Amino acid sequence: MDDPGEDRLAAVLRPVRSGNTFEEAVQRILQLVRLGLVPDGGRLPAERELAERLQVSRVTLREALKVLQDQGMLQTRRGRYGGTFVRYRPGALTGPGGQAGGDELRRRAERMGDRLEDTLLFREVLEVGAAELCAASRPTGAHARRLRDCLAATGTAALGDYRRMDTRLHLAVAELCGSPSVAQQYASVRASVNELLDCIPLLPPNLLHSEEQHTALVAALLDGDRERARTVMREHVAGTAALLRGFLS
């Protein structure tokens, strides 16, 4: 169970900056979807709440939602149980043998260009630093429960939910490091990484190794072992980067 005081959407649903309200509103909602904070079939917060949290007008918000509806990522339903629902199934990108997903991966990587390596490096810097800061605070109480719950969720997740639960664990570490700016930047970079990861198949040996690293990481965080937390996290994100580069080679 989540801690009652936890707001899992806070790192993404923050006020947009003036000047590009429409573009940034689209970006924030895309991050919610790509991070899996609202899963496939899940309902977005109500329009009023979204507009208030993003600090944009209802008109701007509706325009942003319509763009994503036109792209097939969101669906609006009317009636008593209506609302705006996510329609995003990353696994559908990967066809037999991973070929369809591999083609899409290359297309997305080409669009990123030089930003790809920069994104992977930036992710490593953020994640390793966040792990050290989180360990330095030695999470207890509700924070410790949150980490344990996130770890348990990755360990028991069905294959189709694994990446969403994995993102949730990593985002928790970023949010518990003590710096809202780090958490916000991590949410943004992880959404970019997930856009690539969504194109490759989930490999059981890799997931087993990932869970071993997750377990070691959470243990280091709860023990307050800063150096161990840094080492495990660096190895973990390096493994993800290597996997992506392998599928792109």
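Above is the first protein from milestone M3; the second protein from the same milestone is given next.
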Amino acid sequence: MAPAIEAAPLNELRAVLGNQIAVDAYRAGTQPFPDGTVLVKLAWKQTPSTEFAPATVPGAATTVQVMVKDQKKYAATGGWGFGRFIDGKPVDAAQHETCWTCHEARAKAQDYVFTRFAP
């Protein structure tokens, strides 16, 4: 759905993918997003290309992050459930509070979502 480059301090390349509900909502400009929306962020270390010096390419995977919209189940966090995986293992649920804190503070006007649609 949308590529992104995260500058310092994370130095990551990211891609955000969405299920069909998410894509349809983005295309229609629907906010808040409907229940059933799923967004997944994949991130890799930004690494210099060995084939083309000015370019960067994905290096080692750093994290997979997931947002799931269910307004009843996740009412306390704006209707969104958060998940994060590092090295293929889920991160302790208590750490997801930092996800909500950041989204609440910086993306409330966009239904707590940072990503914009890239058709």
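Note on the second protein: The helical segments are 20-28, 96-106.
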